[in-house]
Structure to design on (671 residues):
């Protein structure tokens, strides 16, 4: 990601005559970062080092600061952005920096540089946190007011942070979000700052919501197009447009540049009539390819607790309208709010099941410093102290109404959904090798979208990546391991897998298992060896190791229903009947004829008493194991490269469940 924030700070310093040397560590291999820092700091004229980021970059920022202070203990370290602004009294000592810039930094750093140059007191500068290491004490100066006229801020120091190299490095091999075009040169850019809403899980470090004028914004766009040959924009605003009139004006301006662009919006802006389907289609005509929505949940109780100020109906309307406009919709459901229960979590997950094609991600909520959720977690005793928080393995811990064991079961279910069910393989038509990017092989891929049925050719794309349909905007996956997986394994791993296959079909399961495990020692991601080992373990009744092996086979971008069928049996056996039902249905979605999955789906429904309208995907752990004797196990295909696997079923329209399909939906079972 291009460091837009610190590039703004650098531009302001340079505009005020401060000598600045820039270094973009994103271009430095991880094992060379410290050497690069050491060489840079050998310049003894450097007196101050500034860096920053968000909380999830905390460990990396701290390690960089530690290295800076080892090499140059005389240097002053200044850190900014959300990693320190969220809780400066906690974060500044933890990071080991002497000064923190709180909130917007463009004006603050100029005054700071001048004060350091003249050796005048820093306490008179608004917007600082000052760490006195001798007293282990952080002093906060008066809060700085937001810069209301953001047109007055110089455009980011693109050249200083080598935007040309950044643009050259952006490609569709390393990130699927650029698959709307073959040769992307996407520039990050801001059209506004902050957000007027106060969601409990979110922290805004830069004050009130403000917008750039169209003239100011497009002056920057024009420069980027002419100077750097930019052909797409990543508009990083927390909230791109609230009013339809601004969006209409934006479309009129951007159209002449023939750019692709992506934005973030709120669901109620679309639902309440401000932005209708016609305007969304106008956005697509003007080059918009993707809209990121802050969905979070469809349960009214959770939405109210999060202070989202949205409703389930608004979420449904926004998702449907974006699909009708043939735009890509990207969004997340997050689970674990303070009032989350099994009922609220299952409410949203059952909605996800009914609208699977929306490709909404499912994740546990993250608790970040400075957010209302963080302060509530402290008050409720979920965190003993702010210091303890820094030692937690990750910020996705339990602040909900669930007990810890049920919370962990929920996290496991979310991972199952994200890793195994949130997949939509297209139908591969042609595949040939293309250019490589940073050592990764690109391919020319002709593939049929599973949502709308249109064929598209993607040049120099990653064959393991998800793609964005250039017609309907639907997201889908490349079934690469059916076609290239076998050839990507080592010779030894292939030899051992072939021996395992022969032993398997000779009925010598012991030898087959040993050969498959040996193949995995040589190549742990060997899908076929994982499937053989897992199937043998499944037949022997060892459900947990079977699940691990077969899950790994699925992780290799498998679009093969027989693998899903056997994984569903593992889930059924350990008591996860609801997940098993969804996996059996997914197996049928991938292949036209897989009788075992049809049979097993019926068995799962019977085990649920025929109830499928309110699946209990989140529940207290410790369910008893189930007998799998009546379930049908799929055998490995004779030809392990997948060529004998039946063709996938015909595509289904996006969001079919929302449009009341007249036929039985193969995913939900609804009529």
């Amino acid at each position: 990601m291009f460091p837009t924030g610190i590039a703004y700070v650098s531009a302001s310093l340079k505009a005020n005559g401060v000598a600045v040397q820039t270094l973009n560590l994103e271009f430095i291999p991880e094992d060379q970062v410290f050497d690069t820092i050491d060489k840079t700091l050998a310049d003894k004229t450097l007196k101050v080092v500034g860096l920053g980021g968000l909380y999830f970059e905390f460990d990396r920022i701290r390690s960089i600061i530690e290295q800076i202070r080892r090499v140059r203990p005389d240097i002053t370290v200044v850190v900014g952005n959300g990693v320190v602004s969220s809780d400066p009294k906690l974060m500044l000592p933890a990071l080991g920096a002497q000064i923190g810039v709180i909130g917007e930094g463009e004006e603050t750093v100029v005054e700071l540089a001048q004060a350091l140059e003249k050796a005048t007191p820093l306490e008179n500068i608004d917007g600082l946190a000052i760490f006195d290491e001798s007293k282990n004490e952080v002093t906060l100066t008066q809060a700085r007011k937001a810069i209301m006229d953001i047109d007055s801020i110089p455009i980011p120091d693109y050249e200083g942070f080598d935007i040309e190299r950044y643009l050259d490095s952006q490609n569709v091999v390393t990130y699927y979000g650029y698959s709307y075009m073959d040769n992307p040169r996407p520039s990050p850019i801001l059209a506004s700052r902050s957000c007027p809403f106060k969601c409990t899980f979110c922290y805004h470090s830069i004050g009130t919501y403000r917008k750039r004028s169209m003239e100011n914004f497009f002056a920057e766009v024009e420069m980027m197009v002419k100077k750097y040959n930019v052909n797409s924009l990543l508009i990083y605003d927390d909230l791109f447009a609230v009013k339809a009139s601004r969006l209409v004006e934006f479309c009129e301006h951007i159209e002449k540049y023939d750019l692709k662009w992506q934005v973030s919006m709120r669901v109620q802006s679309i639902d309440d009539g401000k932005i209708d389907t016609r305007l969304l289609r106008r956005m697509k005509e003007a080059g918009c390819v993707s809209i990121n929505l802050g969905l979070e949940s469809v349960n009214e109780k959770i939405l109210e607790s999060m202070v989202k100020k949205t409703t389930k109906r608004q979420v449904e309307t926004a998702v449907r309208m974006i699909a009708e406009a043939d735009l890509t919709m990207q969004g997340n459901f997050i689970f674990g709010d303070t009032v989350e229960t099994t009922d609220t979590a299952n409410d949203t997950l059952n909605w996800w099941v009914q609208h699977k094609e929306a490709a909404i991600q499912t994740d546990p909520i993250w608790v970040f410093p400075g957010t209302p959720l963080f302060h509530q977690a402290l008050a409720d005793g979920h965190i003993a102290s702010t210091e303890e928080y820094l030692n937690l393995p990750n910020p996705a811990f339990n602040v909900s109404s669930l007990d810890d064991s049920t919370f962990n079961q929920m996290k496991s279910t979310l991972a199952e959904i994200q890793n195994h069910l949130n997949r939509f393989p297209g139908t591969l038509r042609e595949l040939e090798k293309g250019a490589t990017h940073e050592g990764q092989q690109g391919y020319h891929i002709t593939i049929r979208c599973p949502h709308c049925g249109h064929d598209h050719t993607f040049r120099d794309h990653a064959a393991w990546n998800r793609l964005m349909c250039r017609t309907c905007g639907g997201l889908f996956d490349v079934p690469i391991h059916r076609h290239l997986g076998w050839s990507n394994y080592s010779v030894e791993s292939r030899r051992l897998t072939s021996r395992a296959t022969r032993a398997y079909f000779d009925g010598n399961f012991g030898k087959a298992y040993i050969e498959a495990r040996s193949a995995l020692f040589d190549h742990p991601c060997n899908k076929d060896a994982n499937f053989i080992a897992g199937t043998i373990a499944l037949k022997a009744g060892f459900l947990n190791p079977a699940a691990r092996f077969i899950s790994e086979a699925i992780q290799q971008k498998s679009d093969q229903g027989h693998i899903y069928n056997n994984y569903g049996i593992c889930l059924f056996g350990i008591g996860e009947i609801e997940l098993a039902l969804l996996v059996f249905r997914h197996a049928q979605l991938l292949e036209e004829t897989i009788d075992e999955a049809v049979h097993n789906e019926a068995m799962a429904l019977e085990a649920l008493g025929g109830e499928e309208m309110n699946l209990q995907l989140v529940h207290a752990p410790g369910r008893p194991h189930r007998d799998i004797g009546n379930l049908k196990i799929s055998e490995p295909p004779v030809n392990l490269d997948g060529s004998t696997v039946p063709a996938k079923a015909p595509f289904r329209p996006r969001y079919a469940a929302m449009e009341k399909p007249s036929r039985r939906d193969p995913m939900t079972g609804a009529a």
The longest strand covers residues 427-437. Residues 99 and 130 are 5 Å apart (CA to CA).
